Amino acid sequence: MKWVSSEPYHWPGTQSRVMFQSADKTEEPPHRKLGKLTVKYNRKDLQRRLDIEEWIDDQLHLLFDCEEEEMPELEIDIDELLELSDVEQRSRLQELLQECGKPKEDFINGLLYRIKGLRKMSGPLKK
């Protein structure tokens, strides 16, 4: 729509008339410029998190000594761990791994070492 005034500018308090006319249907809409995408986490943070998740997956396969299909339902939520104290993190991991018959301390120590300094993710980036 285009704005068209039939009278010159009037000071506030005086009466003026404003009319609108629709744009021609044949006109193409103006092209919009693409905005810049901003990311809350840089690639280094995201790559570090991905590396940790892959390490966890590999280690769980070794701990449970099984193939993907045979792996028990187990979810280690890095963000959940980051909200806990060191003692609570260790306790939570031991609770999650209680079904595993193999020694778990090396895995727990390795994971706690790897998540040190990691930032909690939020919003759409978290799955």
From TrEMBL:
GO terms for molecular function: protein serine/threonine phosphatase inhibitor activity. Pfam families: PP1_inhibitor. Signal peptide: none annotated. Keywords: Acetylation, Phosphoprotein, Protein phosphatase inhibitor. SUPFAM superfamilies: Myosin phosphatase inhibitor 17kDa protein, CPI-17. GO terms for biological process: innate immune response. GO terms for cellular component: cytoplasm. Belongs to the PP1 inhibitor family. This is Protein phosphatase 1 regulatory inhibitor subunit 14D. It comes from Oncorhynchus kisutch.
